[in-house]
Amino acid sequence: MKKYNFLSIILLGITFIGCGEPKKGENSIFSIDDAAFPAHFLSDQSVSIGILNPKSKEIDSVVYFVNEKKVGINKGPEKFKFELKDQKLGYQYLKATVYFGSDSSDATKRIEVVSSITAKPLKYKIVNTYPHDISSFNEGLEFHNDTLYESTGQKGSSYVRKYDYKTGKVFKQVDLDKKYFGEGITIVNGKLYQLTWEEKTGFIYDAKTLKLEKTFTYDKEIEGWGMTNDGNYIYRSDGTEKIWKMDPATQKLIDYINVYSGTSKIKAINELELIDGKFYVNVWQKDAIAVVNQNSGAVEGILNMSDLRKYMSDVTKDDVLNGIAYNPKTKTIFVTGKNWSKMFEITVSE
Asked: So what CATH class is 10-114?
């Protein structure tokens, strides 16, 4: 994840692309009428699914699916209206199974649902400034019982530690084997979970002692980036626009959301912190934090953090913002960066 030279926010201009090679007979008779479809559907809109029937077959019924989930049925070829408000942002796969005579045929189409929310600019106030180990290539930052935990990256110098954030005094540190590139951390039910970047390996420690209790392997072919939790589930980023939901008991990924700002898919989602039902996320190589709706993935606010650099004369443009931790005791947010000499305690407002 440290190989990219810049972050790009991609606006998808071509939306309606086929869902791969059709099955035998699929789309050979019927198709979904997309003549009136917009380039993107907004999350507060609906889609009317009509069937094109060029061979004038006598249609008995049509069963409609969105992302393989049955959403309705019509006795005949009339249009079917489906509300998009409860769908996650991103690509939606429409399918209409058309029954005629003793046969059936599938018609498919892919649409993209984007955010209808305009992100608000947010502002922050620096409450305190603390020292930060300039040698720490930050990958994860989290408070637990008023103690700060931090994980770092780079092979040969990755570790997880707990320390006094006011003085920098280290209480305990565990170094990773030099074959691992350490990534995000989060703490659930007294257990500290840590990811690695490309090694597809995670670690579970006792949060109090940092004794390693278990090693697990990712159940999907993704990279490990940031982590956070809501007390029940863990949320992970993988360097794309996705935020994954993980069961901490099984370490299995069970769902995901896609992050969008308006029509733009936001890739390179990195460090995560969940605060009052909103994800605060670093975007790789951007001095900004996006505030993301936990359920929909819509970016609702943007924090421009670029001014923090003026408080440090010893960081370069390659030393990027990374690390967000919410302290429930003080109700403030702590932010730092890779190889930053300072950590900032801030409050956020509109």
From this structure: mainly beta
